[in-house]
Design goal:
heterodimer; A: alpha/beta; TIM Barrel; two-stranded parallel ribbon; 9 strands; B: alpha/beta
Amino acid sequence: MHGHHPAAPPGSDLDFMREQHLDPFNIINGILIPLFGNVGSERNLGYAEALATAHNDWQVAEWLDKESRLRGTLVVSQDDPVAAVKEIQRCARDRRFVQIMLAPRSSEPLGRQRYWPIYEAAEAHDLPLGIHSYGIGGHASTGGGWPSFYMEEHYATTMGGPATMSSLVLEGVFERFPKLRVVLVEIGFAWVPSFVWRMDRLWERMRSEIPHLIHPPSHYVKRNFWYTTQPMEEPGRRDDLRRTFDWVGWDRLLFSTDYPHWDQDDPAYAFNIKLTPTERRQICRDNAEQFYRF
Amino acid sequence: MLQSLVSEKKIDCDVHVTLPTTAKLVPYLDDYWREQVTTRGIDRLELTSDISNISPALRPDWKASSDVETVRTLALEPFGTDIAICNCLYGAQAVYNADLAVALCRAMNDWLAEEFLSKDERLRGSIVLPWQHPEKAALEIERLASDRRFVQVSMIAMGDMPLGRRALWPIYAAAEAHGFAVGIHAGTTYRFAPWTNGWPSYHIEDQAAQSVGVQTQLLSLITEGVFEEYPKLKVVLIDSGVTWLPPFLWRIDKLWRGLRMEVPWLKRSPTEIVSEHVRLTLQPFDGPKDAQVIQELVAQIGEHMLLFSTDYPRWNFDGTDAVPLRGQPDLMRKLRTENPFETYARLREV
């Protein structure tokens, strides 16, 4: 769920959210994602720190204290890891905060060692990283430049997923922090099998360049990564979705709606395949309960 | 018609030929450029992103490819190849001086014709395009159109701008008019960071980025309407992986259904457009080791989409009888013979 725009935009009214979303869909736990102000990309680091702190206090006062079904996402100034760690330490004891949000379209690839203090704090407090599709890092949306259309931009933002995954894995973040858990939010999941096969093949050829990586990339991806489901993939051959779940891992998928965005998924219609009750329970409840320690 | 032309010819759609040094191009340059190249000491002019320069990316038994004898011995004969399409990666496609690019690319193409295409009739060429100057690039296509040994024009995946941009359309117009396939080879001229989150630390991250770079460029070609404007155009994605294609298309089809009011000139789904206009070379095969899963992936991608390639001399090729081809003569025949003849119009006309 997002609070994105100033002045009473969608997702800014708790009562309406209850009526429109939490109640009709029987949501037991809804995790808030506050995107206002692009804090993860803010270059004025003092402002970023102030905005992050305000965001977190606002979530507690206006949302978490008023509605027990909601959980919060810690906003941090990711380009100032010292301030980010301070904010994590300040808020971590409030267990209603269930993850730390980072922007994948970052100013530098997130695997760089300058970000590692954030990962150390995240692992120490058993808080996963929620890497949500957003950010204005200053780099072109694609390696080939700035695209013309929103349709391209939408996809390019999704590719912040493999950009961040490869940086975190290949820089060795999970060698140093083996218990760090990462969930990629609104960045898709169907690209994951192909991309991980690619990284494994490259690692076989080029591993002499990164001797710190003891295992093939797939080892870390299987151990350290999870994915939210929205926007759900809709293959023409429906069974391809089931195979994709097999390859990604049924235990790695966490249901999400993306309420109140235009491309949100309705839980009644999101899946184009027939799930068994067990499978549905796993993706729509059990995986998230375990992952977020509800 | 096709059946009789095709016979049983075996085609390798990606064999790399490397220019050893710019000095080899001097005989093909005019006085001005000969002096520039000599006094400025422009020697190898490698494309920085070309992994042929990185020893872990080369097969230990495939070290050199700068003369036709080596290509014959290592790339053609072991595979029984009847036709091989030569691709040259060269830094001329990355220089900022467009006139220099035009001069070097012309010389490169003449060198390729002289040193390779004239010396072995099995070889075909990709025209190295000075795409920094699209009008001159189109003229280079016109210049070589009468030489039927050139069957493709070649660009790098990531360059000055998204590949669908109208500024590049003279290239597509000329390619379509003369029946050239447009080959888009993995690589970047580093005008932009290879990843949307910036500049990575390691070569291996750069390599991982290539398939994503190609995806976003394919999306640019689709959304800008290139295939509507040039309905006979064929695009070959070279050296960029293949297994990303199905999930890419699922997502792009879904985005198109939600956003087609933004691009109303697209009358068909991206999947239909790609199925008609786009093909992919097989190597590097970015799949798992499990043969059963590879079967499923080939079925997802579509057997008609893939072109056999060794990617000689890079360390991608998995061997003559490697999966997904082992024990499947029909599939092998599609990839090595039928699909290339369907894709490269100029192969059919020799």
